[in-house]
Amino acid sequence: MQLSRRRFLSTVTAGAVGLGVGALVPAGTVQAVGSSELPPSLPPGTSLGTLLDYAVGTPDPKAVAAAGHAGVIRYVSDRRPGAEYMTGKPLLAAEAAAMRAAGLTVVSNYQFGKAETADWLGGYPAGLRHGRRGAALHTEAGGPAGAPIYVSIDDDPSFSQFVTRIAPYLLAWNSVIGPARVGVYGNAQTIQWASNAGLARWFWQHDWGTPKGYLHPAAHLHQIPGQRTVGGINVDVNTVLKADYGQWR
Questions:
Q1: Domain housing 92
Q2: Cα–Cα distance, 170 to 123 (Å, whole number)
Q3: Average pLDDT of every residue of the chain
């Protein structure tokens, strides 16, 4: 399905009018927001280093550094009900300070719900609520005012879901933290849609629904499938694809 940016944003606006948020939608062009075609992939093996992300516990910064990783991507979000075992959520100021003192970088990410409780399913109202909470936790942990927050789309959504739920959700985040700070954690197609629509400026790719071996050229980070263990903690490993990937400065 192909949909022009103008028609796409008109659809999003129509869904937001009742919420009084139509003014948040930017002026459109005729780019094909809904195109299923992906641009050429980054070269295989592209990597400027690796970062860890984790939620079940927190590894010692010395273990992270000793394993050769450049830093961590951390949740600035609460534990959802039933996930009390995720003791690594949210990121706290002491952990962030310790990571940085060890010469490691820190990146902020937001995800509260998952699957049937995915944050983006709530559209614009959920985006406002989660955006405010994420911004507050980011600040409490010592996150710089200008640092981005990667917003999780931890799914393989359809274009219809993108238009009706995800785009309004991201628009709300834009209104809370500003367009320059909104990042998206999503598969290659979600990155393509969000990038074409101008709804995010930072991108972290996962491979659910992504063509095998494909790296979106707009992606700053890429999550490698499969978990590892660092310092006794289960972690995901991510490759850095660009020198500036939203790390705290």
A1: 48-240
A2: 8
A3: 90
